Amino acid sequence: MDVYGLLGNPVGHSLSPPMHEAAYDELGLDARYVTFEPEAIGPAVEGARALGVRGLNVTIPFKEDVLAHVEPDALAERIGAVNTVDFSTSTPTGHNTDGEGARRAFERHSVTLDGQSAVVVGAGGAARAIAFALADEGTAVEIANRTVTRAESLAADVPGASAHGLDSLPELVSTADVLVNATSVGMEDDVSPVPADALHGDLAVMDAVYRPLETRLLREAGARGATTIDGAWMLLFQGVAAFELWTGRNAPVERMNAVLRRRL
Q1: Following DSSP, what letter does each residue of the chain receive, concatenated?
Q2: Across residues 105-120, what is the average pLDDT?
Q3: The pLDDT value given to residue 87
Q4: pTM surpassing 0.85?
């Protein structure tokens, strides 16, 4: 039996186990997906490798610390975080599938990225992965964050990106093609990080928040005719990318999506 898993603390809320195990069941793979809550990432990675674990997802608070214990690929090194570890090589390799998850979520909704303009709200880990993915697809990226210095730091790393404060959002969004909320705003309270009157029907709006599935941002964007993409799509496709990296098989996306949305 092949064993895969998730390292983080806490991970009891994670939706990755049912999503991945649904894929194993669909393809008839003899595999399990388990969770670990270590106190330190280094011994956890070494222990997993010694036990023959095939692959690991990595989540908060270890996405950055794990870089010191794996060989990151070029993208993970640029982003500065790893969310997927592959043990199929002599040295554990680190990857970041969050940006790929966002890219495939846009693709699923027939949103063109090349040659478009995008506003990313936030400058944390999710924003970093998404901003790099958008820029790599040929999108002009504007980063807006409450702390402008953090936006400036991220924009300095992302090719062609510019940094702004949140007060610039009305102007930025009114002329943008793509909008991404990469903050937790809207998760706990029915609030939006973007003024409703800045939204318009030519936008494609993705919210990385997946609880609730329909945030206030998506509700208000939909009311204005925008294409809306809930956070479960990014969650799904980052998991799909990890599954395909580990197994070399095409993931059963529809089955994984159905199980994920039932759990949500």
Answers
A1: -EEEEEE-SS-TT-SHHHHHHHHHHHHT--EEEEEE--S-HHHHHHHHHHTT--EEEE-TT-TTGGGGGSEE-HHHHHHT--SEEE-SSSS-EEE--HHHHHHHHHHHTT---TT-EEEEE--SHHHHHHHHHHHHTT-EEEEEESSHHHHHHHHHHSTT-EEEEGGGHHHHHHT-SEEEE-SSTTSSSS--SS-GGG--TT-EEEES--SSSS-HHHHHHHHTT-EEE-HHHHHHHHHHHHHHHHHSS---HHHHHHHHHHH-
A2: 98
A3: 97
A4: yes
Tell me the pLDDT tens digit for each residue of 32-61. 999 999 999 999 999 999 999 999 999 999
The first and second tokens of residue 87, run together, are 């043990």
Q: Which residue is associated with the tokens 């608070």? A: 61
Q: Is the peptide bond before 159 cis (omega within 30 degrees of 0)?
A: no
* φ, ψ of residue 141 in degrees (nearest 5): -110, 130
Q: Give residue for tokens 């402008």.
A: 148
The residues annotated as belonging to the active site are 63
Strand-strand pairing, 140-145 and 162-165: parallel
